[in-house]
Amino acid sequence: MAQDLPPTGGYEPVQYKRNIPVRGFRPSYYLAAVGLIMSWGLYKYTKGARELKIGRNSELAREKMWGRIYLIPLLQAETDRDQVRRYWADQGREQELLGKTTKVYHSDRFVRPTYGVTPSHISE
Description:
mainly alpha, rod-shaped, 0% strand
């Protein structure tokens, strides 16, 4: 019995590769873009950290200081309103309990009260 042999000249080549077009850029381009973006972010971060680190001479410290200076009158007015409210409430309680208001000081000049905060279980 005769053996089957390949045809003369051989078989046609078998196509085993897929013919898919390449999409996007090369990976090295993506890597370079990410590196540039990260370098820019690190530059901005160090610039901001250096601004904070400089301290009193920085623009941010000056802005913070002036912001606090401009808020002082507002906070003082709020404290004064609270003290007046407490004063009149105290005078009302005193009038209700004693039937008259007593003078603590020997003059009519207003003296800013000082409050000592004590825990509730000790003051009762």
